[in-house]
Fold this protein.
Amino acid sequence: MDEIKRVTTETFRRKKTAGEKIVMVTAYDFPFARLVDEAGVDGILVGDSLGMVVLGYETTIPVTMEEILHHTRAVLRGARRALVVADLPFLSYQTGEEEALRNAGSLLKAGAAAVKLEGGREYAGMVKRMVTAGIPVMGHLGLTPQSIHEFGGYGLRAKEAASAVKLLEDALALAEAGVFAIVLEKIPREVAAEVTARCPVPTIGIGSGPDCDGQVLVLHDLLGLYEEFKPRFVKRYAELGAAVREAVGRYVSEVRGGEFPGPEHAWGMEPDQLATFRAQLDQMEGGTNDTGQDR
Ligand code: KIV
């Protein structure tokens, strides 16, 4: 069997230089990691969107390091080629550089190739320390869901000139600090295009138009598995939610109607063993009647 060549952070850089699009998607478990890896994505993000689309939280804020670690390990068992990036959850890095370094390091020790954190120039020092310690970091600007209570909603970010300039400066500060790529979430396409043109590291867009160096989507949005709401920037490539309901609905009705399991799903005994088994049952019943000891 041919050896599989792993995607690295260097691959991301090369793709930007070559003008080749970088494709990322989220995954949170072994089977989907295996499937998206086989489908050819360059990167898998174990995003803290885990909290909403898999664990049923209302926001990403309750997600813990333990949860991200648990799901990162599962994804790593399924991903053979893609670069696996693990999200640093809320309060795993905002509390100081030592704790941030320890938490990022534990994700790398679990096998992730890189970590992602939300925020701009205020995290440049922290990024520098992580990168110096050998931890590749992906930035995340624009709509940053861990700050949802600060902004009060999931609206478009950097839509005024001043905030667009600030976002560009944040991107340049993160690149200077050493991030290998930056997620740009839900900003106007013109802003994303300018940041992409001016930033030396690849930009990975989500809801930020076609001019980023790459794209990322939440897998459960793309597959129609998360039905609570669908952002406008999501394209559904499948309706797995409906497919699961239909399939399990058929299973329910076939079990209740006696159609499943069919003869092809069960095993019978060899005739001689069956005859012996029945004879022994008869004997047991006869024996019980004789002694009456079970009464
Ligand atoms: O948590 C996540 O899935 C993310 C993507 C939306 C970029 O951060």
